[in-house]
Fold each of these.
Amino acid sequence: MSSRTSPKRVVVFDYGFGNVRSAERAVARAGAEVEITGDYEAAMNADGLLVPGVGAFAACMKGLKAARGDWIVDRRLSGGRPVMGICVGMQILFADGVEHGVRSDGLAEWPGTVEPLKADIVPHMGWNTVEPPADSELFAGVDTGARFYFVHSYAVHHWSLETVNPRLRAPRVTWSTHGEPFVSAVENGALWATQFHPEKSGDAGAQLLSNWIETL
């Protein structure tokens, strides 16, 4: 009988908003068995759920709810089942988002508002560095000064969630700067997310995805 362990199963959640094919390829290269689907049972039972997102905050939320993705994310996290959001898939995890003066509700897994970037050049498109905390698991093994690929015009500029229970680990927050500092990644128990696109970030992004898969 072989002692070789089976690869972790990851579902890239397909709800109509996200670069699902590039995410699928990157996660497969990182060593997981990957399926692109919006199927409820598959998304609930996978070892890890990856939620991509592109476009407008409100449109992504509408698509996610239509696919029951809001319920799936909530139920998985209630059971400590890993979820990772990418780009707008990260933004919708916050309480709300403001685009063109219109406020839309997010999933409210974290407090905070997604707001327009205040910078000379918007959108923030291209390579940028990150400032992870020293105890980050997500960025373990990633070279200091590594660059990641961003494409966004909105971000969270203020982080307010802490823990008052000394037995619980406070969320680990990574920052980047484009015009002003913004949240570029979060590690919070079973819920991890990145504002940048790890699937488009070369070796550094591949290491990051491998780190996530190792926690599943």
Amino acid sequence: MARIGYARVSTLDQDLDGQVARLKAEGCGVIRSEKVSGGSRDGRAELATVLEFLRPGDELMVTRLDRLGRDTRDVLNLIHEAEQRGAHVTVLDPHVSTRGEMGHVVLTVLGMVAQMERRFIKERQREGIERAKGSGAYAGGKRRLDRDRIKAMASAGSGAAAIAGVLGCSRMQVYRVLREA
């Protein structure tokens, strides 16, 4: 039986150290971590690796349930997948495990709370952006593409596929920029 820890934060500027230290203190021999949103499973390679290597009797540990995800269905599916492999899931704060039947009920409720919290965060973010736009303080997000370079490359005769290849973006993004011009 192995204790496998999973730590996650949503953004690159957040710190994983506290979660990793707590998981080590709980006896996790293997800890996988990543900096990616918990809104869905997309781009969560470390979580996929953990699930793939769970064996019967193993225990997947997270510091809080929202580290597994913020979508109730996703969280319940992750727990189900772990159990299909004969493993248990343990959340440290509050301490809940799928070893007992009551743990499933508590984890379902916690999953719903995490999803509701994500909706509140998105709503507050949307309201903040609207207020900032109203006061003229919001100019939008940081532009990820060099629009002048796209236009210059197109003027020099490069096609959308070639521009996209050089800049590491999709052809649709190139077309959108050229349409704006």
Amino acid sequence: MYRKILITTDGSAVSKHTACAGVKFARQMGADVLALYVSPEYQYPVYVEIIPPSYPSEEEYAAQMKRIGHEHLDAILQAAQAAGVRCECLTEFADAAALKIVEVAEQRQCDLIFMGSHGRSGWGQLLLGSVTNKVLSHTSKPVLVHRLIKEPGT
């Protein structure tokens, strides 16, 4: 039914649990996994003429965000390897994470987007996460929204 599943993460504990559930789902479906971390784009300081010496360059920022992305995606990669699921990891840059998720799913021909109902920026259990909500409204691909019953570690 599904051959390639896009699993997103923002690096939060909730997102890591969701990603592991996504890998289990992929194993049940016999699908490959494309793990995605979307990092914010580089932001220039307000006064570009006066850049503080401690402010990272665009290249330093990109390298740091790729390292962070690799750390966040490594948990998905390890879960996939343990489950015997083929997994590719990808770090992308965009200020609109939801639109980048939809774009990557289209470009990489994913059959399903698997993501959490809430990530780092949710208001507890009050509302569906804003990124998830935007993905649902901008894609024609099926989206499986995973919801944790209780917070990790409780």
